[in-house]
Amino acid sequence: MITIIEATTKKQLKEYVKFTFKLYKDNPYWVPPLISDELASFDKNANPVFQSAEAYFYLAYKNNEIVGRIAAIINWDEVKQLGKHKVRFGWFDVIDDIEVTKALLEKVKELGLKNNMDHMEGPMGFSNLDKVGLLTEGYDQLSTAIGWYNFPYYVDHFEKLGYQVEKKYIESEFPFSEIPIESINKAAGLIKTRYNLKAVNFKSTKEIVPYVDKMFELFNDTYAKLQSFVAVNKSQVEYFKKKYIPFVNPEYIKFVEDNEGQIIAFAIVMPNYAEAQQKIKGKLFPFGFLKMLDAKKNNKDAVFYLIGIAPEYQRKGVTAIIFDEFYSVFDRKGIKKCIQTPELEENLDIQNLWKNFNPKITKRRCTYRKEL
Known about the structure:
Elements (H helix, E strand, L loop, with lengths): L1 E5 L3 H14 L11 H7 L11 E10 L2 E11 H7 L3 E9 L3 H17 L4 E4 L11 E4 L15 H8 L3 E12 L5 H15 L2 E3 L4 H19 L10 H11 L8 E5 L5 E9 L2 H7 L7 H11 L2 E9 L9 H15 L3 E8 L3 H5 L7 E12 L1
Parallel strand pairs: 4-5, 11-12
Antiparallel strand pairs: 1-2, 2-3, 3-4, 5-13, 6-13, 7-12, 7-13, 8-9, 9-10, 10-11
């Protein structure tokens, strides 16, 4: 018999987070989340996404053991601004028992019907800045710290239950040695002169903070044309400042300004924390933060997290300026590999940014949809 309960207490939510530690124990490709970070994300009094979204966290039990989990989510900004009557589901993990999967998804369906939604889709988080997609290829590849991992049988469960692929994503990587620096350097100089642009670099986190609000405004403008994009609001920006900026090397954030000092492009690269997080097993204290700090300073992988270019400057070679600036930092730090996080397969503008680097697709993932 399968029993589903809503996780509401601190103890239950911690069990919700730690279920994956048991499920993926000894799996060499799964990257444990930071337990404290996950719990903070689920705190409805701390995470501003809950000002415009609601979420319910469910645990599945069988023989008095946790055998699965899921989050049922409605992002009301998405419903009202985009007119998409969708109930999301995320943080989905389960043993290889399709009846458990079915029971968990039924809770998502109930929330959707209760609020007059017309379809459900997932896995995805609360907003566009959360993790997204079920892994469909690349099970033998190390996950990134900002991507979900799952077993192949998840796909079988969804297909057998009648879910259809909704969105497709790809993840790629390329060796640092593949960056054609001579041609990039030449192009960067020409683009700077032609459009009167300049690069902005940082040496400390304190220098970055004044730019963050403008960066997210540009982020919203860059992705507005995508049918699934919901703009990031001001309170969410403040939250992400505290959550992510401390984990980014100041040298790994680049901006491009026009002659009036307006930001027209940005890129954020993260050190690859995957191996460090595997070692610390979700715990920053007492010594986990030291391994994270070491990864921040010394990791040889560069993970491209966010990149944005003002619509009027897209396809004008502005990325040459960004990569020209990154090259000197990567070269000095001995970077070996550049990794791209999930990108919508339909977002050809983003994929064109990488075409000269001969990227290799390492993972594919998708979201699944079902009508209610």
